[in-house]
Every structure is written in C-alpha cells, then in structure tokens.
Amino acid sequence: MIKVAMIGAGSVVFSKNLTGDILSYPEFKNATFSYMDIDQERLEVGANLCRKVAKAIGANPKIEATMDRREALSGADFVINMVQIGGFDSTLVDFEIPRKYGVNFTIADTTGPGGLFRALRTYPMLTGLTQDMMKVCPKAYLLNYSNPMSMNMQTIYRTSDVRAVGLCHSVQGTLEQLMKYIGEKTSDIAFICAGINHMAFYLRLEKNGVDLYPRLFEAMNKPEVYNTNRVRFELMKRLGYFVTESSEHNAEYNPYFIPRGKEVIEKFNVPIDEYLRRCDGIVDHFEKMKTFSKNDEPIEVNKSPEYGSTIVHSITTGKPSVVYGNMPNNGAISNLPDSAIAEVPTLVDRAGLQFTTIGELPPQLIAYMQPHVSQHELFIRAAMGGRRDHIYQAVMFDPMTAAMLTLDQIVEMCDELLAAHGDLLPPMDSKKTLVPTSGKKFAAVDARDLRKSWDAQQNKVRASKLT
C-alpha cells in the first residue's frame, strides 16, 4: 500500500481536500498519510480534519502527524509540497516595501518582485526537501503545489534528481468558467492549452470539431460576461486567445493595467491588495476549522478538481490519464527555451509523467511569456550562485515594474527587500560582480510596523469609498 507524505499540511483545507481525493479511490482506502508541518497547532488541526475525511468516506488509512520532515518522508511513494515560507509577515514585506516606491500588486505570488522574493525564500526549504527525499525516499514522486510554480520547479529540477511535477488548478478551473459563458459542458469539449504556469493559453477549444472561439468572442460583448473577467477578456481581444490564470493575477503580469493609473485600474476592476485581503480571511477561516476539527460534526467530502490524486492513481495502477503539469520544456513548446518550465498536456501512467509535444506557439503568446521565462532563469542563477546582480536584473525585466520605476529605484527596492527578508533567503553576495548596489543600508523590518502600514492603507481605501 502506498505512503503519501504531505509537507506543509498546516494548509489545512488543501491537505484535507487532497486526502479526500486520494481516499476516493478504492485502491487507497488503507494508504498511509504522513502529515508534516513546523506549526504544531496547524499540524494537529490538519490531521484531525483528515481523520474526519477518512471517517466520512469509510476509509481506514494510517494517519501520522510529525514535525520531523525526514520521518514524514521515510519510505514515501508520493510527496506533496504545499509550503509557503514566511507566512503573512513575509507577504506583507512583498507588498509594503514596493508600495513605498509606488508599485502596488494584486496577488504578488507568481512573478515580479513579490514572486521573485517568495521563490528566493522558498529555495532553501525546497533544496533541503529534495536532498532529504534523495536520501530517504529516492524513488518517490514530488507533487509541488507551492507558488511561484515555475521558479519553484526550477529549484527542484536544477538542484536535484527528484522526479517531480508542478500542479495548478488554473487550466481546469478556467475551462469550467469559459464553458459557462457559452453554455457548454466541459466533458463535451476538446481543448489544448499550453504555455507557462498562470500564462498558458487555450490554443484549441472545440466541440464536435467546431471551433468555439467565435462564440466566446461573441459572449465577451455581453456586459454581464465581460465584467466578470475584464482583464482576461481584454487580453483575449488583443492576443486572440484566452489565458488561464485569473484577471487579478494577469493584471500584474504586463504593463497595460496597473501602471496606467487609477482610471485604468478602476475601468478593468483590478483588485489591488487582493491577496492580503485573502490572507486576512484565511486567518479567520483557520479559527473556524480549528473548532470544527475537534467536534463531532460530520464533514462533507467532495472530490476537488486538483490533479494530484489522478497522478497518484495512474502511476500506482498504470491506468493512463492526461493532466496539465509543469516540468522542464525540453522541446514540448518549440519556441520556448528547453530549460523553461512549461505547462502542457502531460501523459501519466506507470512509467511516470511525460510531456506531449505542442510545437510552436503563436509569437504574440511567446512575447507575453518571455519576460517571465527570463526572470525564472535569472532567479535560479541568483539562488544557486549567490548573485545579487541577477536579482536586480530579474526585476528590471518584469514588465509591470519596469513600466513604473527607474533603474536606480529598482536596485534600491531590491536591496531593501533583500535586507527585509534577511535570513529567510539564500546567501546573495557569494559572487562579487561589477554591477553596483544602491549603496544604501537598510534596517531589519518589524512585521508589526508593516501591519500598521497595511491597516493604514485599508483605512485609506475605506475612507475614499465613503467620500
């Protein structure tokens, strides 16, 4: 029977859903689940919720909870990573320091300064995780759910020999949205999607051999449809294809919305600081889950759209499936670098995970992705080589940041972010170069001060809505 190790199981709703998905297969009713987190309270809540899930399904798994990562990994067949390093305090750093320079974000977990520094502080954990896997479960598959997906997958593939895939729900989730716009069932649709994570595009949308894009363009003209996804529909109008991840994400992947100022932000309904508001909500939700995990109230279990359980089932049983995974491109998309982390249809069976071949993407789609592919490459070279200059360069070529800041401001902001995140980051001055720093020294950041800054910003927004 298989063993599944869940690293970062304090992400209680996610670990609960993935456990329920795996247990929904009869073959895994007696599987072993080892939950690991560095937060004892969140670990206990997550494990208790998963025990409730098992009871509701009528399964009898072995459930372990430990704060020892190697203990959780020992003998595992599958490892699921859902760790976010630094929590809300680090997220505040990613938002509040750029705000001082006039740069605001919606989510900041994929690209730009926020995604870059999230990847940098995840790098030490991920390299440690893969080193442990190579020692205690070398044949296990690593299923990574942590963002920023592409940069985290660069870490895994460029620093280890672990078999791994990055997983996101944006492909299947967006397809569901699109079919609701035109009144079709996803089960009736033939589609192909490809690109990089959060910036993959639906190259083909068909029903019975008929192209559905004309109907989608027609639906876009209805205000009740367009207003649900203004940024992505605007991008489809200009690029000809619909992109996977949400409008709030894509608003910060390009220079066309946030840098254009308040009028454009309001026109396209761009929710500045959306992720921080979500984090506030997650804190409240955890308290409810903590109470729920201790009582006898039954839990409702529904299969989630995540690909993780499908991969576990196909590799274990040999029954083939197709998912959308994130792995090194290696020619799957012929006009992206081989070393880029691509997201394309992925065949899964007993032999593991294998990309299908897509060929060339339309040049306008490559142009949309390429600055971010370059950032991913600069990130991994910065992290592996201790190159502060590559941090500057990665942010220089971020389309949104470049549209808002001068080169001097970018370097200064990066220096301040480096100082603020401190010991959470890998060493960034191992390699000396001729590229200059800002020359400024920055003090350590007190998360309580940043919290005050965030609260002040929220009060300012609320006050503006009342006037």
Question: Could you describe the 3D structure shown?
Answer:
The chain is built from 19 helices and twelve strands. The chain has helices at 12-23, 40-57, 69-73, 87-100, 112-136, 149-159, 170-182, 213-220, 223-226, 230-239, 247-250, 262-267, 274-294, 308-317, 363-385, 388-396, 399-402, 407-421, 447-466, and strands at 3-7, 32-36, 62-66, 78-81, 141-144, 163-167, 190-196, 199-207, 210-211, 321-328, 341-349, 352-355. It is globular. The chain starts with a strand and ends with a helix. The model has no long low-confidence stretch (mean pLDDT 95).
List strands and helices in order, with pairings.
Layout: E1 3-7, H1 12-23, E2 32-36, H2 40-57, E3 62-66, H3 69-73, E4 78-81, H4 87-100, H5 112-136, E5 141-144, H6 149-159, E6 163-167, H7 170-182, E7 190-196, E8 199-207, E9 210-211, H8 213-220, H9 223-226, H10 230-239, H11 247-250, H12 262-267, H13 274-294, H14 308-317, E10 321-328, E11 341-349, E12 352-355, H15 363-385, H16 388-396, H17 399-402, H18 407-421, H19 447-466
Parallel strand pairs: 1-2, 1-4, 2-3, 4-5, 5-6
Antiparallel strand pairs: 6-10, 7-8, 8-9, 10-11, 11-12
Helix pairs in contact: 1-2, 1-14, 2-13, 4-5, 4-18, 4-19, 5-6, 5-15, 6-15, 15-16, 16-18
Summarize the structure.
The chain has 467 residues and is α/β, with parallel strands linked by helices. It has 19 helices and 12 strands.
Number of strands: 12
Q: Report the biggest beta sheet as strand number plus sense, adding barrel if it closes.
A: 9 strands, mixed
Query: What is the name of the CATH architecture of the domain at 3-85 and 110-167?
Result: 3-Layer(aba) Sandwich
Low-confidence stretches: none
- Please give the share of residues in helix: 40-55%
